[in-house]
Amino acid sequence: MTVTNDFTDRTPFSTNALETRADLAKFLGEILDPLAAHTSPGGARVHLGYTGTHYDVIATQLEGFSRPIWGLASLLGGGGEYEGTKRWVDGFTNGSDPENEEFWGHIRDKDQRMVESSAIGFSIAVAKEKLWDPLSPEAKANLEAWLGGINGKEMPNTNWLWFRVFANLGLSKAGSSRFDAERMKADLDHLDTFYIGEGWSRDGPEGVVQLDYYSSSFAIQFAQLVYSKLAQNEDPERCEEYRNRARAFALDFVHYFDFEGRAIPFGRSMTYRFAMSSFWGALAFADVDLPAPLTWGVVKGLQLRNLRWWTKQAGAYNSDGTLTIGYCYPNHNITENYNSPGSPYWCCKSFVALAVPETHPFWTSKEAPYPHELLETTKSLKSPLHIVSNLGDHTLLLSSGQQCSYPVKQSAAKYGKLAYSSAFGYSVPVGNGTLEELGGDNTLALSDDGGETWKCRRATKEAKLEGDKWLHSMWYPWKDVEVETWLVPPQKETPLWHVRVHRIKSSRALSSAEGGFAIYGQGKDGRALEPSTGEEFGTHEKGGEGRAASKAGVSGIVDIGSGQRKGKALRTDANTNLMVPRAVLPTLMHQHAASDKSVWLVTAVFALPSTRGRVGAKAGWIAQWNERPRAPKEITALMLRAFTGRR
């Protein structure tokens, strides 16, 4: 019996083919329409829910108003129309008026209003005739004063500086006396110090090691591309530099997407969802000359396939079509304390392609599949310290060295895991008492209190790529516990496996639990997976191996070292994983006595997602499961020398 849930899995957008510019405009309209019922009488605030953030409730309602403007302004700037545009024009009038009850409040130091000012500045810059010109002289003066209030205020030393650039860019295009050219140049000059080469920028000054989607679609690359279009006449040299950076970056960034359109979840702000792909539309907006093997047909496919995939994720939307807080389903466990009900509308950046004329080759080119030259490949990315692979129809990255430079909820899960996958996502803790609560996929979790609490890799030291072959890092869960980790990507001989080697030196007794990829944990009857030894759906536990197979594919883990660890198919607590609310996690577990000698763990991790329209893994996968990889001989030699005492 197969469970069908068409009545729950439908979305308001899933029938949209998303092949043409008109299709994309229709999708945007269907995203904007439901907001009308949640908009204040004066249009300045959008109230979508009651959950809290570290900033005030008025700022959350401004967020609900402003973020959809990324899409609306792109549509209008590209010559399109939207019936509900008046809501935002009225909102500009009333929200910026200090005497109006819907006033947004003046911008203060490090204020969330700074973030939201960027979309408003963008809207004036690209859709002045539709959003600025209709305002009365008094409304224009109020909006100028409100936007200009960002100048002279203290800002975080991060991508936030781009928000002030965009506010000033809008003021400049409006011919406002509030435009501060000196401030904008200083911000741009400082933002350029974040650049580290090969197209990549840090999200902050030297010492910051965050290179996630904020370095690309969420903020920096997107902003650079939009600026390079809008400021070409005023700042041509910098604009050309930004286009050059985008060309270099694109050749790395393409590896974060799979051939079905999914991007690899990594880092924070996952609730922004298809904002991940906005970089591809921004390339077209900025008229960048593409580097081979990218073509406009390829870029169009990368953008539209990602959007198509998201139109089919029912849990991403409430029943009225508004966006939920979460990823593939409503999930507050994954969020940060800056995620309000309006935050997900940052995804509207991906509608920037609507600002691109229909005569542009982005729209006139036939959509092309993922570049053939980049399929079945592995690439080392030196700047983010990632190795990305799509061997065996599985797009994943191995990661070492990244960490959040300030407190972020679940940062160890968002930056410190050993591997991340476009198909299986990642998991976050929902508690701190059991392995089930930990959601420890792709981690080596350690406990010094018999399993009462667990520590995973968070702050990684001395991380590096070794010969473009593997990642090597040191990490210290306690001051007297040293862990050295090697991450070896899939090889063409064993494309469904990657290998991990850990050396643990600890003067205290430890429990260890190492997880593979978390996978959908229900069977064909919709009930929890039952034990199985073959290719059919189910779980498998045998000695030093654990495995789970379901409609999502197969995930497994094997101790290929001592073989002493116990394999388990662990059912994690609900709502730990970004992709599925009910997951099973293949795990290896062991107890380690205190010792002055190192313990070596050698692990093989198996993953085969369901792809190309299949339900479950392709037939015959069990043969690949039985074809185990080995640790590289160079690392094996290190282990041998450690055991024999030789140098």
UniProtKB/TrEMBL annotation:
The chain's coiled-coil residues are none
- The DUF2264 domain sits at 20-370, 377-636
- Provide the residue span(s) of the region labelled Disordered: 524-550
What PANTHER family is this protein classified in?
Answer: LINALOOL DEHYDRATASE_ISOMERASE DOMAIN-CONTAINING PROTEIN (PTHR35339:SF4)
The name this protein carries in UniProt is DUF2264 domain-containing protein
What organism is this sequence from? Answer: Asterophora parasitica
Q: Where are the transmembrane segments?
A: none
Any Pfam family matching the protein:
DUF2264_C
